[in-house]
Design brief:
This protein has about 280 residues and is α/β, with parallel strands linked by helices. Helix content is about 25%, strand content about 30%. It is built from 6 helices and 18 strands. It has helices at about 15-35, 55-60, 115-120, 170-175, 195-205, 230-240, and strands spanning about 35-40, 45, 70-75, 75-80, 80-85, 90, 105-110, 125-130, 140, 145-150, 150-155, 165-170, 185-190, 215-220, 245-250, 260, 265-270, 270-275. The strands form 6 sheets. An 8-stranded mixed sheet has the order 9-10-8-7-13-14-18-15, with helices on both faces. Strands 1-2 form a two-stranded antiparallel sheet. A two-stranded antiparallel sheet has the order 3-6. The longest helix is centred in the N-terminal third of the chain and has 22 residues, at about 15-35.
Amino acid sequence: MPKFGPRLGPMLGPKDVAFWDSIIELEEKIIALINLFTVTGARRCHVTELEDVEDFYRYIYNTPLTCDRAVLVGGQRKTHPPHLEGAKWVCMNNKINFVFGNCLVYSFGIDRDFTFDDEMDNKFLCEVHSFDPTIGLKNHQRSPRLTFHNLGLSNVSDPHARKLKVERYVNILKQLGHLNSTIDYLKVDIEGYEINFLSDVFSTNPNLLKNVKQIGMEVHPRRGEMTPNQVALWRHFQQLECFGFRLWTSEANPIKRTTFMVNGRRRSCCYELAFESQAHRPKLR
């Protein structure tokens, strides 16, 4: 037991201060060491902090996987510059085992563009659940296979809010009876709130992702260098990798006014990313 220095009235003496400073410093080191690892389900994931913004962009532009049957689904034609806005890449090769007529799609973020959802319904005969609390539509059955929910995805539960109703991913799965169902495609296009969604899932229910085959997600790193969004997304990219997801395609928003310079390179406000779960690949015999 350390000997404490003499007290100066109600104040700590110099030796007391030095002792408690050393305890606090040791505690901070232990916390920092623990934070290098996050438990993802039964996995222990090594997660490093973002130290160089170029590492963030190298990850986005370096896609280790390829898909020999990549299909661009949905989107609205734009002319300045020519591109499809709102389209999502879906891998439909034999490895991913995407079965027409027996597929389940969750689509978060519509903004009145149902082209992706309608195509997954009409062309591929999937059961589709579309979510968006910002476009003034009530819950309705858009088609026999496509259901619209006036509900947003977040890290909090507020399904009875007067304006924007939001719910956590785990509760949405429970309410729709899909807690143990395979999600063939999870689309997340929610204008920055993808961070709230990922933070909630990885901190509370990471095993929910074990049933997801593919994730198509627009990420918003924000303008600048080492922004809070870049730091948070860097952490979540590593957690996705730890949980078996690999990035197979990425595209920057092509509209020039949404771009900016970082370290002499032109970067974008938003990137369309597509991840494939390696857990759902059939094992080779």
